[in-house]
């Protein structure tokens, strides 16, 4: 009589990276859409772009929300990409964990800076 403890989750195979692959594609689409919206809004500004125009560009709440979503997409996209690179090229587990921690601290710091800047405008 055999007893099965835990789940029967496979950790190998072609389907394992599908979630990360899909997340990379979806975040890339979000980033591209934000870039298109931003370029369209910048092209509608007459004359030189100074601080006041830049502030007015991000004044509508929908633009701030879109920027927030795009910033989250950039951070998630960066985390997935850097994590995959570290998994592929850093073979020492302790060094990889240290690198993961450094990347996470850096990305969280970038997120704080982006959100502080966005809502200070």
From TrEMBL:
The entry's free-text remark on the cofactor is: The heme is bound between the two transmembrane subunits.
Give the keywords, sorted.
Cell inner membrane, Cell membrane, Electron transport, Heme, Iron, Membrane, Metal-binding, Transmembrane, Transmembrane helix, Transport, Tricarboxylic acid cycle
Give the residue spans that cross the bilayer: 21-42, 62-82, 94-115
> What is the recorded membrane topology of this protein?
Multi-pass membrane protein
Q: Say if the entry is tagged with keyword DNA-binding.
A: no
Question: For binding heme, which residues are annotated in this chain's numbering?
Answer: 77
Pathway noted in the entry: Carbohydrate metabolism; tricarboxylic acid cycle
Principal place where this protein is found? membrane
Q: Where in the cell is it found?
A: Cell inner membrane
For this UniProt entry, the molecular function terms from Gene Ontology, in alphabetical order, are: electron transfer activity; heme binding; metal ion binding
Entry's Gene Ontology BP terms: cytochrome complex assembly; tricarboxylic acid cycle
Q: State whether keyword Heme applies.
A: yes
Tell me which cofactor or cofactors this protein depends on.
Answer: heme
* GO cellular component assignments: plasma membrane
The superkingdom listed in its UniProt entry is Bacteria
Q: Where does a ubiquinone bind?
A: 89
* UniProt function note: Membrane-anchoring subunit of succinate dehydrogenase (SDH).
- NCBIfam families for this protein: succ_dehyd_anc
Protein name as it appears in the record: Succinate dehydrogenase hydrophobic membrane anchor subunit
- What organism does this protein naturally occur in? Allofranklinella schreckenbergeri
Gene responsible for this protein: sdhD
């Amino acid at each position: 009589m055999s007893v099965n403890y835990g789940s029967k989750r496979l950790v190998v195979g072609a389907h394992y990276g599908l979630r990360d692959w899909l997340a990379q594609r979806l975040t890339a689409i979000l980033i591209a859409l934000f870039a298109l919206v931003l370029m369209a809004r910048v092209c509608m500004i007459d004359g030189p772009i100074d601080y006041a125009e830049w502030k007015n560009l991000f004044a509508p709440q929908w633009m701030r929300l879109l920027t927030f979503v795009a910033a989250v997409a950039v951070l998630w996209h960066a985390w997935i990409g850097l994590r995959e690179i570290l998994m592929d090229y850093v073979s020492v587990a302790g060094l990889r964990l240290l690198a993961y921690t450094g990347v996470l601290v850096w990305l969280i710091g970038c997120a704080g800076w982006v959100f502080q800047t966005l809502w200070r405008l």
